[in-house]
User: Fold these one by one.
Assistant:
Number 1:
Amino acid sequence: MKKIVVKFGGSNLRKPQDIDRIVNVVQTYNRPLVLVVSAFYGITNALIECVQAAKEGAGTQAALADSRNYTQTLRTLKSEILIANISDAALRVDIEKALGERLDQLDRYLTGIHCIGDVPTFVNDAILSYGERLSSLLLSEVLKSRGIAAQEALPEDIGLMTDGVFGNSACDFAASSASVAEALSADKVYVVPGFYGVDASGKTTLFGRGGSDYSAASIAACIDAESLDVWKDVDGFLSADPGAVSAPRSIAQLNYLEAAELSYFGAKILHPRTVEPLFDREIPIRILNIMRPERGLQPYTLINAQRKVTRDVVKSVTSTEDVAILKLHGPGVGFKAGILAEVTQTLDSHGINIKSVLTAQTAINVLLSRDHLDAAYAAVSAHHLNGVVEVSRNDAVAIVAVVGDGVLDASDVGSAIASRALSAAIASGVRVCLAAAGASEVAAYMLVHEDDRKRALQAVHAEFFGV
Ligand code: ASP
Ligand code: MG
């Protein structure tokens, strides 16, 4: 019997009592599973701050004390979770000991930073993985205490191998599939910490921020799972962010491409890379809401290979502020052979990923993540590209995208979609800086002034959904 991979994220792990909901879900499945868990809400961010503070204060007693205080905070938090979830005091002592050992490892890494005054990338990745490592140990122990045959399974022990890129690795399926499948084959509930795998020398390498979804998808691919079930605290993918639009609809089905584009353009439900490992193998993703136990195991959104053009074509309107424009001006850049290659090489050599490029005769617009804009601007300015007379930057922008199979269809319905979205935004007074239709078969997007983001979302959503 194929297994289901079940992912619980930070939104399912906010309070000690939340563990109870997860136990209930596991009991509802009532079959062997592979669980993939994230850190408790906010823990990864706190660890990042902790690493930064340790680096900046390296060598000082005060900073060392701060690091210790943080691991002490984690110890206290874990004890609270244990008290809330395990009634047997003797058992709690045993588990606390195991958690304590893990926190001691974390302490040692932080102390290392204080000693050397630097954070080698492998140390950074190791430290940030501790949020997940604590969740998996805790959850597996709580499940066992409730009579469920559970076992923690660490990526290093099951052979979840990566390409070795610290901070942003990808799974090496050729190296992982057989060992992961073998290691997770017994009739048990395995609990795997998300967010990381290991390189060829056994070092922890992270899958990037929000990477537990990708961990779960990779494991699902390795074991050829029946499905990947992702538990959230909302009703699956919606037609728009409920914070921006008053009555968004829940979307019952999306194909892989639509889900990937929605995630890429800002929907917070899934990490954009989640569909990558599942696409070829046609393993479905099911999005469920842990706050609605009455629905049992019925998903809100099912993501699979099925391509469905709905009557209204657009399934969701989404947006993100994680974008910035780097603009290279020059009277003939549109005609200059090789210039784009130089730009991309320069950015690549600084580890900067390009989101999109739009060119015209007198300007090249490079869309980047906002965090990368300073470095990209500095790199391109320093490089003196032949033909470029000025480099400018703009981070007061946001992307608004419409996603749905058929958006770029040449038929009457499809081809009208992008222009309807654009007209609706402009008619409501939105300042549009750039627009692109055709970047993918299922998405069209525009860049608007960041202050107009909400207004654009509302106008475009109203155009297609009436509210
Ligand atoms: N805890 C990690 C993060 O915050 C991974 C995840 O939550 O998926 O980025
Ligand atoms: Mg997440």
Number 2:
Amino acid sequence: MPTSWILMTNTICISLGGSSILGKRGIIPDNLEHFASALSRSEKSDKFVVVVGGGAASRQYISSSTKLLGNDRDLDEVGIAVTRVNALIVMKYLSKKISTFPKVLQTLEELPGALRGHRVAVMGGLRPGISTDAVAALACKKLRSKLLVNVSAVMYVYNKKPTAKGARAIHSLDHQTMLRIARRFDNRKPGTHFIFDLEASKIAKRENIEVRFSNLDEKNLILTIKGSNFRGSVVRSR
Ligand code: UTP
């Protein structure tokens, strides 16, 4: 399918971290509501790919089956299955608020077709060995989108573990710095949790994708999508 129409619209890929919509006891309805409201209040010419993470649920499943399964590939498959359950809930709820393709996509190839008649396409994980951040970066590459918004409980990239002494939030950084930080903190094991992982950082650098970080505050997310006066880190080329 020709993808030239995509260039006519503003397509934004969102990595919706599981931590932002899921607590220990499952979906946090208010947070999902804020997210849906922010998307429905965006410019009508904006289209979105929403890639939903696994959050606490995937980590719980992965850690409780680590001894039983014992290999990363199987554990990654468990993680992917959980992201797709979360994606199903997000897709069903978004459908009530904004034109959303009525299926959780399982491949990147389905994206152009899904977005042709709808403003939103939703997916979860794609394949073992990566995370949903990387899936969002791959979706940007597929659609030639130059903007990825990472929504999670943490809205700044830090020079150290955010809880460590002397940790400093970095408001603006280039791709090379993001890559260096991701290399230091992302050990790419099933269930690993880092604000923006190494594979995603590599794709963003190679494809020159701007990455903006936001929490699930509705106003801030709207500003982040617009790119004006938002709070949160931004990664862009110098
Ligand atoms: P996430 O991308 O949600 O990881 O995928 P995360 O770092 O826990 O992110 P948050 O907490 O949602 O922000 C959950 C797990 O699913 C597997 C990995 O094991 C990952 O840790 N996964 C996910 C894959 O193997 N491939 C994918 O494409 C996506």
